[in-house]
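Supplementary Methods, section 5.1.

A reviewer requested that the exact input to the structure prediction be made available. We therefore reproduce it here, unchanged from the version used in the analyses.
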Amino acid sequence: MKRPSPSLIAVVTALAAVTGFAALTAPGEPGAASAAPAPQAARLPVERTSLLCPAPSTSDVAETLTTSYTPPGATAAAAAGTTAPKPSAVLGLAKNPDAPALKKGAKAPGTVTAPGTPVAAEADGAVTHGLTGTATGTLAPGWTVQQTTVVPAGAARGLLGVTCSAPDTDLWFPAVSTAKGRTDYIHLTNPDDDIAVADIELYGPEGELKTTIERDGLDVPPHSTTAVRLSTLLSESPHENLTAHVSTRAGRVGAALGSATDGVGSDWLSASADPAARLVLPGIPADATGVRLVAFAPGDSDADLKIQLATANGTIVPAAAESLHVKAGMTAFVDLPDLTRGAAASLLLTPTDPKKQVPVVAALKVVRGKGSDTEMAFIPAAAPITGRATVADNRAKGTALALTAPEAAAQVKVTASAGTEGGTPATRTVSLKAGTTTVLTDLAPKDVKGSYALTVEPVAGGGPVYASRALTLPEDGIPMFTVQTLVDDRGTVEVPAARRDITVLDD
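The structure derived from this sequence is encoded token-by-token as follows.
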């Protein structure tokens, strides 16, 4: 069986995005390498950030809001003798050779803003072109773009939300499907000047499935977006619970999976956090009527996972299931009915045997409502917020922020920005007890107008913190909702100080 390869993201890519300094000393000079202490690494703000957004919708009744935001913060000073780059944050349309031509007058929601001020752009009807964007200067550290689409009717009706992501070379999507009544598309966007070559592998309960693109890979042209329906990759019968693995042979891509289930709803599935032995899936709504956990073990060892629920009062073992066995290279799933029992919570996955640490990826499919008035969303496993994370496009009503501290007590600063139409930012500090999930709903500043951004910053000295934002916009009795996990914005990066030892050797 072919095994997925590990991520190929090079450290050089991150270092190229920041400003650093190199110290040069010659032997015998004050501060020479032989006498000076080891140089200390420094954390510096990034000067350039790239984000990619999938094509919002093919529905003529869709309404899409794209919101761009950079939290305020310090930026690196320009090096001596240079001029700092002019700040900008611009979103442009990615080409889509399979999509119809843009309507006359249509354009991308390009933005040039100041830190601390969110900017939104609306689009009505079908928008089948993705977006590529770059922020520079003071707008680069923490730049965030949120895409929110309401489809009030049709087979793909629902509230679809996605945080636009950075390009990558290795991405995992548990909880995908090619079953009847389910339509899943992987959207791939190439931000670069050269062709990207991507692979899409699918893994079911019996292992890897043979796809139609295994031999040659999939070409994604420069500055373009390509949507691939998963069912077209398989000649076999439909499969309900799958894991998709997107990797690249050349270049890099942004990827998101759009999913719609007839009579249930639709939403975006973002990539799971990188494979790890311990996973947190934060922010299951209190009124969830259906929760399915899907997990995959990409290595050569089976994983035995303990299932726990972090509630407002502590960590418990849910009655629906205590554990999950995941065979190596195979997808496993379990339904968790009546999981939250009316209280929002987060799912924790840990090894049943602490000595057997097997990396896995995972995601939840969550359903709210009953009968014909249902809606679905996904919660992928999240990574801890190590520095700062932001989610844009929050509303005065219907926004809930879930904060989970699975291992130790922690404190976080939560800042609500001004709105797109005005208002005053507000910051609070929230204390989190170990093993609990805290849900905040009174987040909007009193005078906020329009949508606003939320920024979460863990206070030093506490345990790891995981977070997600749920946005609920009811439509004709349907509890339309979407959940986005908060991803560390990587607004700064640690750059090691360089020191050269210039030694002259005589013959």
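Residues 1-34, 500-507 have pLDDT under 50 and may be disordered. These observations are discussed further in the main text.
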